[in-house]
Amino acid sequence: MIHLVFDAVLHLALPATGSVQISQVLGRLGLRERGLAVAADADLDAEALARCAVAERDVTHAGVVLLSGPALLGGGMLGPADAECLRPGAADAVAAALAELGAGKARVVIDVRRQDRLMEHAHLHAVRHGSSVSFAEQFPQAQEPVLDWQELADRVAAVPGVAEVVLRPVETFRARPELLAADLVVLTGVVEPVVAPAVPVPPTFSARGVLVARALNEHVGPEEQALVREFVAENFPGPPAGNQFLRAQTRAAILAAYAALNRTLFRARLPDLPEDAYLDDAHTAALATSRE
Questions:
Q1: pLDDT tens-digit profile of 70-117?
Q2: What SS3 class is residue 190?
Q3: Spatial separation of the C-alpha atoms in residues 80 and 139, rounded to whole Å
Q4: What residues contact residue 74 under an 8 Å CB cut-off, 6+ apart?
Q5: Which residues pair with 11 in a beta bridge?
Q6: pTM, full prediction
Q7: 54: buried, middle or exposed (CB in 10 Å: 19+, 13-18, 0-12)?
């Protein structure tokens, strides 16, 4: 059974916030039988993703459409394109998807991550897919507070047809990341509980592993990138908790630059969580208990 409040739910997530794993889980939940038309794909652009959902809706007569994919944030790798604002093409991508769907009342769900960790994950994602550029080259303005989640939410909220914007700190799902997908289904209006299967987390690289992978990437083609990933993951594995290679001084400077911005974010958009949740590792780690 589904409680119809919105005719579409758009899930906006960067690869650095677990979008690939969410797509994998959504494909295993049998959501067609729950009244959902789902299109979740990390490779399709926003309009193509919406067309897939429309085709599914036409077959199933589903009451709600769920779209999930990084293209809904405007696509492309996080980096120089975000030097002035976070995901400058997001509003246009959401508008294009809603126009293709013909949706008049949409809920938009944006998965957020603390900015230093977001950049680390994004850099690892780039390296895992063949990049040889350094962190400084990918994020030349790492200590400028331009990755503003609240500004992004406000921009998306202004798109015609968007009725609500929900922000989800992925750190609150750290203990069981597969619940990101289950919670997303709940946000569509599905009433019955959803049991999400666990999904494997991509292996991380140590700080040396990142350097090794970048060096090897300069000498291999796309067809050999999987070999680089396997070699580095086996010989230079990172910590189970995730890739962390920023120097302590660099991390501290980034966190200090974003401290005021993040306090405002939590006060305005996430008032049920501590406003200092993104202040440092100790405060952020406490978010994992917020869903217990």
A1: 889 987 889 988 989 999 999 999 999 999 998 788 999 999 999 999
A2: strand
A3: 6
A4: 87, 88, 89, 90, 92, 93
A5: 68, 109
A6: 0.91
A7: middle
